[in-house]
Structure formats: C-alpha cells, structure tokens
Amino acid sequence: MDLRQKVINANIEVHTRMIEDYESEPHWRPENITKVKNRIEGILPKQRQKALDVGAGTGFLTRMLTPLFDEVYAVDVTQAMLEKIPSADNLKIVISPAETLPFQENTFDFVCSYSFLHHLYEPQIVLEEMVRVLKPGGLLYVDLEPNKSYWELMKRLDSSRSFENSSVLLREIRSTVYIEEQIEAIYELPKEVFANAEYSKSISGGFLIDDLENQLVSLGLKTVQVRPDWFLGQGVVMHEKSFELSNSIDEYLRFIFPASKELFKYIWLTAEKG
C-alpha cells in the first residue's frame, strides 16, 4: 500500500470512529459559524450555479452553500461523515478521494474546503484538482489550515519548558504537540493512525503563508490572498474577557503582521481563477 492510500485509510478510520463527537469541535460554535458565513457571503462569485465542497465531512460548509447556489456537491472519502449532512434538493453527495475529483474541468463557480488540506499526504495535488474543476472567474476558498510558524513555536516552547506558568500556553501545547496522545487515550486510536490522518499537520508541520501564496500563483490563480487567523489564546479572551477585547487584539496583531505571524494558529485563503 502506498503512503497516499495509507493516509486516506487513516482518515476513514479516524473520522468513522470519532463521528459522534465531530460536531462538538470548536469550529462548530455559533460565533465561528457566523464568521465563516460572513466570509463566504463576502466573496461570492457573480455566477452561483454550482459549488463544490471538497473534504466536506459532516457538511460544515455544505450547509452554508445550499441556500446560496443552484447546485452543491459535497465530496469526501468517509461515508459515515457524509451521511450526517442534512439532505437538500440541490445537494449531491459524492464519495471520492480529493486527489481525483470526478468532475470535468471548468465545472464549478465556487470551490472550497474547510479544515481539510492538512489531512492529505499531498495537498498540492488536491489544490491542483480544485483549480482544475473551477471555472475561469470562479472563486477558491480554503479555511482553517494550520499555520506552520505557530506549530513550530509551540514545539520550541514545549522543548524549553517555557509554558509552565501559563495555563493558556499549556492548553495550546497539549492541543498541538500532544494531540495524538490525547486522541489515543480517548478513542483508543493508535497515535500513528491519527498522525497519518492529519499528515500535513502532524508530520509535515502545517503550511507557511508565503509558500501557499506562491503555490496558488503558480497554479494560475489571481487576486490571491492568504491570511492568518485565530491568535494564541483567542478563545480564552473571547469567552473569559469579551468579544470586543478579542477583536481589538486581533486587529492589532494583524496591524503588526508579519511580526506576529507565529501568534496565529490558522490560515485561510481566497483566490480567483484567471
């Protein structure tokens, strides 16, 4: 079995095993759903005939797309996940690996994925596929991908033991450096399997903003914007302090970017096919 198929199989095993808890993850919280909806509505293409959600899972993005497009296609390799997506008259479910999307080129007005690329062995190939099936003038949207600079910072802090007096850092290091051990303890999934299921995060370490931007430009995309998201401890500030303070800190860290690039956990991007 080649490594790509091993990663695909690991994803099916992990997400089938964790299916009942999947929608309790932080990105399903109301404030994040609102944020993502606003992002999508702010970048919608003029033509809204067909949209594609790649790595759809249980339909986090799909549910937002069905009211906005004439036809929506949700693609994933895990049947148990796809079965959780609410049915809709304009929705078609497709079981397929993202590396070989079963669509002709120039088919979709909007192609998107959420928290997906880091589950892949070769995300570059999937980005190429997403661009291939996107119509000229269509929009690409990718969100909630791990910022490699942040993950490297967490590993350095863990190695130096610089976090012992900070509950925020302790929690973040546990959720990044030691996530495989936690999943193994809770779900009895071997940590090697979970690492393979998040290959481009656990093993490759995530994505660099500049590298992603260069990849998208090399694929012929224009109006490429790759942005950081979700600063260190933002959830604590939002829920223990205030949303207003969270917004102020976020605005400042973006103002001093790229000096703050290590402090943002995730990356999101948009681009247009030329």
Secondary-structure blueprint of this entry?
Blueprint: H1 3-17, H2 30-43, E1 50-54, H3 62-65, E2 71-76, H4 79-82, E3 91-95, E4 108-114, H5 123-132, E5 134-146, H6 148-160, H7 167-176, H8 179-187, H9 191-197, H10 199-202, H11 209-218, E6 221-231, H12 234-241, H13 243-255, E7 264-273
Parallel strand pairs: 1-2, 1-4, 2-3, 4-5
Antiparallel strand pairs: 5-7, 6-7
Helix pairs in contact: 1-9, 6-7, 8-9, 12-13
- The CATH superfamily label of the largest domain reads Vaccinia Virus protein VP39
Q: Averaging pLDDT over every residue, what do you get?
A: 95
**Briefly, what CATH class of the largest domain?**
Alpha Beta
Task: Characterize the largest beta sheet: strand count, sense, and whether it forms a barrel.
Answer: 7 strands, mixed
Shape: globular
Hey, roughly how much beta strand do the residues contain?
A: 15-25%
Point out poorly predicted stretches.
Answer: none
β-strand number: 7
Radius of gyration: 18 Å
Q: What fraction, in percent, of the residue positions are helical?
A: 40-55%
| Number of domain modules | 2
